[in-house]
Amino acid sequence: MNRVRRILLYCRRGFERECGAEILELTQAASQNAVQAEAGSGFVVCALNDPENPHHLAAKVPFEKLIFARQLIFTQGLSADLLASDRITPLLATAKLLCEDFSEIRLETADTNEAKELSTFCKKFAPPFQQAVRKAGLISDPANRAAPRLHVFFLDSTAAYVGLSLPGHGSPWLMGIPRLKSFATSPSRSALKLAEALLVFLGPTPNARLQPGMSAVDLGAAPGGWTSELIRRGLRVVAVDNGTLRAELISSGMMDHRRVDGFRYRPHKAVDWMVCDIVERPSRIAALVAGW
Questions:
Q1: 86 beta partners
Q2: How far apart are CA 266 and CA 202, in angstroms?
Q3: Rounded CA gap, 4 and 76, in Å?
Q4: Are 189 and 113 a contacting pair, CB within 8 Å?
Q5: Cβ proximity of 57 and 3 under 8 Å
Q6: Over the stretch 22-47, which tens digit does the pLDDT of each residue have?
Q7: Span 168-204, pLDDT tens digits
Q8: Tally of CB atoms within 10 A around 82
Q9: How many helices and strands in the chain, by DSSP H and E?
Q10: How far is CA 151 from each of CA 99, 108, 122, 166, rounded to the nearest angstrom?
């Protein structure tokens, strides 16, 4: 695996500056490295003063320490001026410079409205590119999960970053975003926020820390999105909010609605979980959670 000159990070649109400041701090060379963080782009590029081995970089920049980055890719730089007649040859050549053994291929874009227009292009480009990568012998046995993933991050149809992510060091999801299903019975799409948090912190498989029969308190519960997600997982919930909750949650027999101030409420006995989606100053919410 050859040395790389860039770290590419995907982030949520609008958080480029925070993501850039974070990667500079973690590389511990802010005076030498430089960051490109264009507002609204949905990604950040950190240019390294000295090329480094991806494994050494991974030790310096643990992905789990990053707050604003959805994905972390090691790359040589931007492949620009790709010709419509043959994009595959230069992209394949760049991939070979990075590594000669990948576990899988991901064609991605930034999570912006403008970049989403590239999704049709990526779907059409994927089959011939994947075939070319396999023909070149760059895809390992699928069982070899130790091999890095190959990422091609398109800015448009003529420019892309070719890079790699290491197993256990980066997001396992396409574009770094878990694709979660919204249930028709959920009172609001906010349930997906809690579902994603549980997936990120507890993992995709059943966890002993979250089991049916446990108890939970949902502060700021109305209209009941987070409460419905907890009930769906078999937890009994005290939903705390002066607002109205959906009738089906009440009729489930798994919820007790308390119309009281979420900042003042305390249970009479210990509970297994507390979740909070009260809209308030972050510092006040942090103090509330610390008190719990």
A1: 83
A2: 25
A3: 5
A4: no
A5: no
A6: 998 888 654 567 899 999 999 999 99
A7: 899 989 999 988 877 767 788 889 999 999 988 888 7
A8: 18
A9: 9, 11
A10: 12, 7, 12, 11
Task: Write b or e for each residue in 138-152: b if 16 or more Cβ atoms lie within 10 A of its Cβ, otherwise e.
Answer: bbbeeeeeebbbbbb
Q: Report CA 3 to chain centroid distance, whole Å.
A: 25
Name the residue among 228, 69, 91 with its Cα closest to residue 162.
91
Q: What is d(CA 153, CA 61) in angstroms, rounded to the nearest whole number?
A: 20
Residues comprising the chain, all counted: 292
Task: Provide the pairing of β-strand 69-79 with 43-52.
Answer: unpaired
Quickly list DSSP for 114-183.
HHHTTHHHHHHHHHHHHHHHHHTT-B--TT-TTSPEEEEEEEETTEEEEEEEBTTBS-SSGGG----PPP
pTM: 0.80
